[in-house]
């Protein structure tokens, strides 16, 4: 009789635990779409950035695309997520919209 040591394979999930802040950001941003389940995230970068008043703010800036209720693709859009406030701004309007201004002022600096 031969003794064999059997080891359970390491769980892929334990090595790649999702950041709860990123999960919350994705959920909040996806909710801005007509079809939240269609949201696909591209580049996402979390950083402490300065707002227009020079105050440090914990943010995530990135890009997201999704679909409208009709199934039409929205195209890729920039977004800003304010971690502490749990607020999301998806740029989907004119360049002078609040979302566009917030993204430009905080994420582009």
Structural class: alpha+beta
Instruction: Give the strand order, joined by hyphens, for the main sheet.
Output: 1-2-3-4
How would you describe the shape? globular
The biggest sheet, with number of strands, parallel, antiparallel or mixed sense and barrel status, is: 4 strands, antiparallel
What does the average pLDDT come to?
Answer: 85
Give the N-terminus to C-terminus distance in angstroms. 68 Å
Task: Explain the overall architecture.
Helix content is 23%, strand content 35%. It is an alpha+beta fold. A 4-stranded antiparallel sheet has the order 1-2-3-4, sandwiched between helices. Strand 1 and strand 2 form a beta hairpin.
Report a brief summary of the structure.
The chain is of the alpha+beta class.
Structural descriptors:
alpha+beta
Q: Topology of this protein?
A:
Blueprint: H1 12-15, H2 20-30, E1 35-50, E2 56-67, E3 77-82, E4 87-90, H3 98-107
Antiparallel strand pairs: 1-2, 2-3, 3-4
